[in-house]
Specification:
CATH architecture of one domain: 2-Layer Sandwich
Structural class: alpha+beta
Mean pLDDT: 86
Number of helices: 16
Helix content: 10-25%
Low-confidence stretches: 1-101, 111-119
CATH class of one domain: Alpha Beta
Length: 692
């Protein structure tokens, strides 16, 4: 394996520096191509007899009194009129010793037709043609020269940042053999830095944050200090679908190897913490024995495929997309041909609008074509982070059996044309922003599918996201019961309890949701209440309050190296606080209000599309110091009112003030809202004073 730099960026959203200033004062330009020599020109030092480099000294002129005199200049004599004369030049001596004047060769005049010197002429400029209205047309803009973005299809194969170099040196999927045969046997200190901070992500492994370092330490310059010798491990659960046996296995592994930690993510995954590299092969063996895996759960590759938690059983779904989800995973996950992408690639497929399809790189949403019947509507280019963009409709209707092929085409465009220079500009959404949706469709059809897609209608937008919490009837006549854990924080003990409880009521199907919730399917009518009562004892509510149901949070500073503030642990206190403080207006809250808490700008918990979104940062406290706090986003949403709402740029809220702030803003909403108005609609039109 070829080795290059150890200096990988800690954050997927951090770009490598484009120049450095060495300590010796010379300037070195960072060259993109590997092996290029920096442009430096060192000066050869003068050596003394003892080998040291001497300091250059000047010998001062001594005055008569021993002092060093000021250097005097002899003034030139004045002319007769008192003016200072122009300094004369000393003529150069001729060969015979006499001074000769400096001669200039006269210019040869152009000859005219009559032999006389012809006047000098200029070629007249051809005027631009006038526009139809007689006005002179505007000058055409010069084409903007763009830097190479490392697009493979255009012939750029040399890595333009350290992350791309690591992937070129050795394919990330190859690291599994080293984990099993070297690192698990020799321990954390034996792990190569390129594997640790790069390739191991393709197998669902990130180092977690070391304890004792608050948000003032967050940053790439402190990565060695922040990096703990334990891992976060992400288990891939495509479609969010699990059997009772699979869920019980996840619970048992948590209690055995992860200190009983388990978090439900908003990508339908489970995340462990405190994983030792020595235990990774055993965990892989046991989850793969029940049909689960960590392959490509992280990294620059296709991530987990989101699916409807009620796929195949929802009474109002257009179709069951499960065959397409399973086929994509079977064909392409683990395929090296599609696992070196410019950045992460997120997919959602559903017969309902219940997978937040607007913020995925590619999504297929159920729709009925007036001629061809049930199929899926294609969306591309969504994503949040520091440059949020909503996905756009391609305008194409895709039959269910063609979804895997179209998915491969979209993913291949991203692989071949995606930007690979700056990590912060490498998601598919940036390519689509530059190309436009018409060009994207043309390239997809002409270069990757070899056929035209069928134009199709758009699905009807929803008024609010569907999280499936509570009790719902299924096609089979049984019930789905959805449970909310605060901000997705569960444990191995709780997961095992859910598996056992599901089997006792006759269910073997559990689903995770894109909103950090879980659902038990196939519950008989006479077992619903007993199931809800049993799992309530584990902190899982089947009839939750607005705040328990509609609050999401990322991992936060407890485990994440990129975070500035605590999030999930703060949520455990915030939810019961809001339930108590706002109990007197519960009967007036006939619409959901979502609260999303993020520890940094990367928006893993979707702060820009929440009714009340918090973006973590350090803010100034009353004593002039720094404390945990948040910038506030208000009125973001998906569905009917899709958008990112408004940002209160000059208004910051400390972590301790979150309860007061939410209480104040929600009461203003209740007092000022119009009939039937949702929070996002009110927040967009409200006076800023009501939002502070």
């Amino acid at each position: 394996m070829t080795s290059t730099t150890d200096a990988l960026t800690a954050s997927d959203n951090t770009d490598p520096s484009e120049g450095t200033e060495p300590a010796d004062g010379t300037h070195t330009d960072t060259v993109a191509a590997a092996g290029a020599r920096p442009r430096t020109r060192p000066r050869t030092p003068r050596a003394t007899s003892n080998g040291d480099t001497p300091v250059r000294q000047r010998t001062p002129r001594a005055a008569a009194d021993g002092e060093t005199p000021v250097r005097a200049r002899t003034p030139r004599p004045a002319t007769a009129d008192g003016e200072t004369p122009v300094r004369a030049r000393t003529p150069r001596p001729a060969a015979d010793g006499e001074a000769t004047p400096r001669a200039r060769t006269p210019r040869t005049p152009r000859a005219g037709a009559d032999g006389e010197a012809a006047p000098r002429t200029r070629t007249p400029r051809t005027p631009r043609a006038a526009a139809a209205n007689g006005d002179a047309p505007a000058r055409a803009p010069r084409p903007v020269k763009r830097r190479a973005e490392g697009q493979w299809k255009l012939g750029y194969r040399e890595p333009l940042n350290p992350n791309e170099q690591v992937k070129k040196d050795d394919h990330p999927l190859n690291v599994r053999a080293r984990i099993e045969n070297i690192y698990a046997k020799n321990g954390f200190d034996s792990i190569d830095k390129q594997d640790l901070r790069g390739r191991m992500r393709w197998w669902g492994l990130y180092t977690q944050r070391r304890e004792g370092y608050d948000g003032t330490w967050t940053g790439d310059e402190n990565i060695d200090l922040l990096e703990d010798n334990h891992f976060m491990m992400r288990i891939r659960c495509d479609g969010g679908a699990l059997s009772a046996e699979q869920l019980r296995t996840l619970g048992q592994l948590s209690t055995e190897f992860a200190r009983d930690t388990a978090d439900l993510s908003d990508r339908e995954n489970v995340q462990y913490h405190w994983i030792r590299v020595e235990d990774v092969p055993t965990i892989w063996e046991r989850i793969e024995a029940v049909g689960l895996k960590t392959t490509q759960a992280c990294g620059d590759c296709p991530r987990v495929v989101l699916g409807s938690p009620l796929a195949g059983e929802a009474v109002d779904e257009v179709l069951d997309p499960t065959p397409a989800v399973d086929e994509i995973v079977r064909r392409y996950i683990g395929d090296k041909n599609l696992s070196n992408l410019p950045r992460k690639f997120k997919t959602a497929i559903s017969g309902l609008q219940d997978v937040a399809h607007e913020i995925n790189d590619v999504a297929f949403i159920g729709v009925v074509h007036p001629e061809h019947g049930p199929g899926l509507d294609l969306w591309v280019g969504g994503g949040l982070s520091t440059n949020p963009m909503l996905a756009q409709r391609v305008g194409a209707w895709v039959p269910l059996d063609e979804v895997p092929d179209v998915w491969e085409g979209v993913c291949s465009i991203f692989r071949d044309y995606g930007y690979r220079r700056l990590r912060s500009k490498a998601r598919l959404k940036f390519l689509i922003k530059d190309w436009g949706i018409e060009k994207f469709r043309q390239v997809l059809e002409d270069e990757y599918l070899g056929r035209k897609l069928i134009d199709g209608p758009a699905p009807e937008p929803l008024k609010a996201p569907r999280d499936h919490v509570g009790v719902q009837k299924l096609k089979n006549g049984l019930n789905a019961v959805g449970f909310a854990a605060i901000a997705g924080r569960v444990s191995g003990t709780k997961l095992t309890a859910v598996a056992d409880a599901a089997e006792r009521v006759g269910s073997d199907r559990i689903r995770f949701t894109p909103y950090q919730k879980l659902i038990v399917l196939d519950v008989p009518d006479d077992k619903v209440d007993s199931l809800i009562e049993e799992l309530a004892g584990y902190g899982l509510s089947g009839r939750p309050s607005n705040w328990r149901r509609n609050l999401m949070a990322c991992s936060g500073i407890e485990f994440c190296k990129l975070s500035f503030v605590e999030t999930r642990k703060r949520s455990q206190d915030l939810v019961p606080e809001l339930e108590e403080r706002l109990a007197d207006i519960n009967d007036k809250l006939d619409v959901p209000i979502t609260v999303n808490i993020n520890g940094c700008p990367n928006s893993c918990a979707r702060s820009q599309i929440a009714d009340i979104g918090f973006k973590g940062q350090l803010v100034e406290d009353d004593n002039g110091g720094q404390t945990e706090g948040f910038q506030v986003h208000l009125g973001g949403s998906l569905g009917l009112d899709s958008g990112f709402g408004r940002k209160l740029r000059q208004h910051k809220v400390t972590s301790a003030e979150m309860g007061d702030y939410i209480d104040r803003v929600v009461r203003n909403f209740v007092e000022q809202r119009e009939e039937g108005e949702r929070f996002a609609q009110w927040a967009v039109r409200a006076d800023e004073e009501a939002l502070r």
